[in-house]
Amino acid sequence: MTLESENNNQGHAPRQNGGTVVSRYRIKDLPQHERPRERLRDLGPAALGNADLLAILLRTGTARFTAIELAANLLSRFGSLNNLAQLSVAELSREHGMGVAKSAQVLAALELGRRTASWRDGARPCITCPDDAANLLRAEMQDLKKEVMKILLLNSKNEVVKVMQVSEGSLNSTVLHPRETFREAVREAAAAVVLAHNHPSGDPEPSAEDISVTREFRKAGAMLGIEVLDHIILGSNGRFASLRERGHFD
Known about the structure:
CATH architecture of the largest domain: 3-Layer(aba) Sandwich
Oligomer: single chain
Number of strands: 9
Helix content: 25-40%
């Protein structure tokens, strides 16, 4: 037996399949202790899996799948919530059962989660070591399929005032523009910056290009009185490399 759509509740008769009645369940036909919303109410959100939490956001399913099945299909197709969060509304809305409204709802929730993890209690994160920068960006960057460069703009207390994306490149390279990057840093009156990018291969080992780019940014920053504190490279499984720790800032 399979599950019926939440929104297919118009009293439709069971479908006939070669003379055999195929009965389908809707989420509301499940026992209350198995329904995602009721489980969240009774047990708290931490007790639910990703598919159940995503199903609550979706609210309704389709004629073919319940909201839980839609959520499970999305997670199976894209591999993780992080990968799902990288999609645009247009990309996500092309998936079965996902329109513009549902896609916007899901992506808004994922972005709120990311911001909650990065900016707890409204306090500005403070970068005191490479681990601080890596922890701030890891959730949103380590599973990206393309190489993306971001820059942390810091005030005189090394607090993050803004995180901006500098560029997005191919799987193994990205085009950087120090001049445009530092224009924004000047506009925000940044005292220092931290560069960060991901390696889609999962290996955070710095390349010759990474080292060269770091030197160019340090030169550009020095001319403007904005120190480049570090360049963090994020790999998979929590791994990262700090070019300062590797001795490339000597």
